[in-house]
Specification:
Layout lengths: L1 E2 L10 E7 L6 E7 L2 E5 L8 E4 L3 E7 L6 E6 L8 E8 L4 E2 L3 E4 L1
Antiparallel strand pairs: 1-2, 2-7, 3-6, 3-8, 4-5, 8-9, 8-10
Length: about 100
């Protein structure tokens, strides 16, 4: 699974988080945190090695037939200048994507 860049990556507006190459029609969890670190995240998916310390679940979306999933997130204006780590998790395979770093 691959997490794609956050669009537009700005505070105070809706941002699109998207992932590709997930299990077709499977579930994809979008997580975020503030520190990049490999940790066990069995509470999200058994055996998952997440790339974010204390990952927080944003939402779970269903991938389409090609394995793509996306969601919109309203990033508060007070997040301007804040750096966030975001990772998608393919729940069918318990596989985490690359970690995307975004400074809003």
């Amino acid at each position: 699974i691959t997490h794609l860049p956050i669009n537009p990556g700005q505070a105070g507006v809706a941002n699109i988080l998207s992932a590709a190459l997930a299990f077709p029609n499977g579930l994809v969890a979008f997580t975020y945190g503030f520190v990049e670190q490999t940790v066990s995240a069995d509470d999200i998916c058994p055996g998952l090695q997440a790339g974010i310390l204390n990952p927080r679940l944003l939402s779970i979306r269903q991938a389409d037939q090609s394995g793509s999933a996306a969601m919109a997130v309203n990033v508060p204006a007070n997040f301007a200048g804040v750096t966030v780590k975001v990772q998608a998790v393919d729940l069918a395979t318990c596989t985490g994507s690359n970690v995307v770093t975004e400074t809003f």
